[in-house]
Amino acid sequence: MSAYAELMGFQRETEALSQVAGRLGWDQETMMPEGATDQRAEEHGAMANVLHARRIDPRIGDWLETAKAANDVEAANLRQVKRSYTRTLKVPAKLAAELAKTTSLAHRVWADARANEDVAAFLPMLDKVVALRREEAAAVAGDADTYDALLDDYEPGATGAELGAMFDALRPRLVALRAAILNKPAPAALSGSFDEAAQLALSTKLAQTFGYDLKSGRIDKAVHPFSSGAGLDVRITTRTEERDPFNCFYSTIHEVGHACYEQGIDKQHLLTPLGGGVSMGVHESQSRIYENQLARSEAFTGWLYGQMRDAFGDFSIADARAFYACVNRVTDGFIRTEADEVQYNLHVLLRFDLERALMSGDLAVADLEAAWNDRFLSDFGYAVDKPSNGVLQDVHWSEGLFGYFPTYTLGNVYAGCLNTAMRAAVPSVDADLVIGDTAAATGWLRENVQRFGGLYEPKDLITRATGAAPSEAPLLDYLEAKFSDIYDL
User: Fold this and answer.
1) Rounded distance, CA 396 to CA 398, Å?
2) Degrees (nearest 5) of the Cα angle 168, 152, 348?
3) pLDDT tens digits for 239-270?
């Protein structure tokens, strides 16, 4: 066997074990009995040890020295393996295992603290997670920026300074649009009670409408919706609220965007380094374009209005145009995942700035809640009322996912670019969405983004798909046009 073939055979087993480790996380969120927390932490730590040992196996270095790429796919596989190998070598095995174990425990502590509105119960554990992630970042970064070392795990090639500049360009127009909208009367809100079983049935129909293959996936309930897995086993979760079916429907569509990306990757990349989404920013671009530019469009909401009437009978919204405005209401709120398109990114920018300060040491964990509340009041004009609506609302920091939050806004930026290109290439998008047909739109995304997996670097992928380098301008233009129409600005 060639060095390349030997390396890929070894890597295939590593990728398979990584999927097993991911399934442990899925089970913890959906089906694991509460009493299993400590044991699951040990299991996570054991899997982390096994994976870490494989990822620093000295044979990988030998194979990389002698392997020759015969084509672009092989070159990309080697690039991805080298990036992972180089990074992992810098992180001691003991630290990797301690991180896996600590974040598994921290997740349960966070969940309990959130349920009890008890920030003090979570902060000691968060302090441990932050310290471990700082240690990891310092090991990886060397003389470079430690936050960039964390960010590179989720968005290869991106830097905090680069994203900070992009976000600074987003802020003024978002703030101005928000102010203009909130000076106008709000559209009618949805009211009434919506049966959970009917919500879940319609959410399953929506998932299939957007192309989610249930033969290779499943839908379960979780506190925080997420997508998990790759290739032939890609699972999603959703949640229900009796008086807010949009939470269920749009959480489902969002996670379907993630899942369809994974299911859409060319099967030649299955269980190889190219067999998953290339970055979290690109991943988020798929979930956001499914959820927003497609599923919150006037064309699609007209179809969804009919589906809801079929499922629930008459409800509080009189017609399809009012339903479109209702789906896209801009109102005060605390929760990032429930935020409208205009204000969503302001929630992300808050987290981005706070976590950069945590990682640099400019902000102590003990001062995090006060810093969050001060920033929220400054950005949104009203005070956080309880921790579950503030610093305890997101799962990410309990899991050590520092560097993850900015990819949400970067995904929105990518989605804005992709939406412009998609609609130019597929003029029938809105006519199709009126009848609940997403095939042309999702097919364009599959062809131009999803099928490549990790073949291209994130910026290169978006540039190839759209014909231009990523820019915040298309997203801002889209938001201003859409909400000016809804609110008669």
Assistant:
1) 5
2) 35
3) 999 999 999 999 999 999 999 999 999 999 99
pLDDT of residue 13: 97
Q: Report helix, strand or coil for 300.
A: helix
Q: Looking at residue 249, what is its pLDDT? A: 97
d(CA 228, CA 24): 10
Q: What is the mean pLDDT of residues 343-353?
A: 96
41 pLDDT more than 90: no
Angle in degrees, 0-180, between the axes of helices 439-448 and 245-264, rounded to the nearest 10: 40
pLDDT value of residue 309 = 97
For range 457-482, the mean pLDDT: 97
Angle made by CA atoms 301, 416, 376, in degrees to the nearest 5: 85
| 255 is a catalytic site residue | yes
Start-to-end CA span in the chain (Å): 66
Phi then psi dihedrals of residue 171, to 5 deg = -55, -50
Phi, psi at residue 187, to the nearest 5°?
-60, 160
Task: Write down all domains in the chain, each with its CATH number in brackets.
Answer: 3-144 (no CATH), 160-487 (1.10.1370.30)
Q: Which of 15, 255, 298, 472 is catalytic?
A: 255
Q: What is the rounded distance in angstroms from the CA atom of residue 173 to the CA atom of residue 471?
A: 14
